[in-house]
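call fold(seq) -> tokens
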Amino acid sequence: QVQLAESGGGLVQAGGSLRLGCAASGNIDSINAMVWYRQSPGKERELVASVNSGGSTNYADSVKGRFTISRENAWTTVYLQMNSLKPDDTAVYYCHAHIKRGPVVLSGPWGQGTQVTVSS
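ret:
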């Protein structure tokens, strides 16, 4: 099994930067992709950014050009560098793993979440 643990959240002023980390442990060779989501009060959880085993990345339109997702080799840690933060970026950020099971890719574990608060 895979376990995930986020870190790096906090309080920052608008225009500032934060880097979130998602440390993976366990059977990390089974990870096919990692995704950052966020959820703020009263809103649905939304995809922020993803990276797959081939290195391809994908971003929500709202964060393109400001956020960058990257990963260590062997999936030990996935980062989300967040620049030019806005109050609308305030949310709990979660990392989520997609797991390979033979030819099938399944939804895997979630981290516990880390709070990001951007003050105006």
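The chain has a mean pLDDT of 96.
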